[in-house]
Amino acid sequence: MNRRVPLLLAALALLLGGCTSTSDDEPGPPRAGRWQPEPGQQWQWQLSGRLDTSVDVPVYDIDGFDHPATTVDDLHRRGRKVICYLSTGAWEDWRPDAGKFPAAVLGQGNGWDGERWLDIRRTDVLEPLMADRIDMCRDKGFDAVEPDNMDGYANRTGFPLTAADQLRYNRLIARLAHERGLAVGLKNDLDQIPQLLGDFDFAVNEQCAEYDECPSLSPFVEAGKAVFHVEYELGTREFCPLAKRLRLSSMLKRYALDAWRKPC
Length: 264
Fold this sequence. Notes:
Layout: H1 4-18, E1 43-46, E2 59-63, H2 69-77, E3 81-87, E4 90-92, E5 106-109, E6 115-118, H3 123-140, E7 144-148, H4 163-179, E8 183-187, H5 193-196, E9 202-206, H6 218-222, E10 227-231, H7 236-246, E11 249-252, E12 262-263
Helix pairs in contact: 3-4
């Protein structure tokens, strides 16, 4: 009897097991070479106005549609990592691909002009559209993706979305980014941090100090992952002591998210 046969069969089983695709409901394996933002890194978040590339911070978060690859290249030459802002949970009527979204997936407005919540249960429709958007981020040379409006289940969307629907969709977006070698951030969605910590490489948060929610983000910091945080209504004296204690990457911004910033 050939004693190598059982060993060969075992090796084959391991190989096939390693090729099994990961469900959207489970975090995927870590991938070598992907950027990992670290706690405390300073950042600039600018989504409107003429981009100011002179801000001396290691991380920029800019609109993925509005900026060409040359802008990303310029920021890289300046030593910056660049995050691609996308709305993945809401439709925006001014985007070049807006006409590709069927009316059936468009829900109620989310409070911003020209934006409507998406029916995130319809992954058959949304997955290829979001894959194309994340392809754009990759092709322009971005290092990461900031997917916005990722907490529709906690809002009035016009659809009966559940927490399970949101988990499944958020993991889908994380997988699409990771498959393209990009880091991905969890935007807000604080209640699902325990379930999603393993799927996301950093967090982006608005106004956790104003709403007394910042400690909820500590699992990211404890895992060695950055929390990029902004406040709009509080002064820096009101939130920076807490932000520094929690090792958040915090700054004061205007709602327009133009170039102005006041970091902690």
